[in-house]
Every structure is written in C-alpha cells, then in structure tokens.
Amino acid sequence: MKNKLLFILFFAILSCSKNKILKTELNKIQIIPSGEWISSVDSASGLSIRKDRMAFYNNNKFNSEDIAKYRIIDSIEMDDNNKKILGTYLIADGIDDTIVYKITNRNNKSISIELKNGRIDEFKLEEK
C-alpha cells in the first residue's frame, strides 16, 4: 500500500511540472529544398532530397532501401508564456527503422547535421 501511495504521489508531482516539452513539425515551406546536398568532408558523399524523401549516398550511389521519408521537428519547451527551442531534428523514417539526426545549422543553401557517429557534417546544396 505504501508503495502505491508513493507511486501515485510521484506521478502527481511529475504532472504538476510547469515546463512542457512539445514537438512541432515544420510546415512545407520550411522543409529542405530538393536537390543534391554535397558533404563538406567528401564530395562523393551527400544527401539527396526529393519532396519529402531523402537518402544519404556514398561514392555518388545509394540503394532503394536507403530512401526514407523525412520530416523536421522543433523540440520546444513551454513555460507559461515563454517558448524556448531546444533543438531541431531531422527524422528519417525508413523501411526498417527511424533515425533521428540533430540539425545544428540550416538555411536554403547549407545544412549541418550531427551524424550517428557524433560527427557534424555540413552539406551544401549543389548549384544547377
């Protein structure tokens, strides 16, 4: 009985927290422009974007299973009327798994992403 009361008390206190973390998906205007995004580390590697699909490629090649639907999410902390963006994330929903990448910098011509190995790579939109 004592454990049940502690459990209920814990969740009651937890739910009274003023700070709430929200995740909002960016609208279509805020998505990454379509095209080839070349890695600043290796010019034969990059990110291919078409509408709401993406694929990382190496040696200028990728397989169909590398293509994932992507979305960009802002993680926001709300406290009363104050809003603080905690981070922006690129979420790749693949066939077998979902991978989350932190976006450290983004504009219409370049994007910096923290990769799975912890390294940050900058990708620049290839000029046509």
From TrEMBL:
Q: Which domain of life is it from?
A: Bacteria
What name has this protein been given in UniProt?
A: Lipocalin-like domain-containing protein
Q: Tell me what organism the protein belongs to.
A: Flavobacterium psychrotolerans
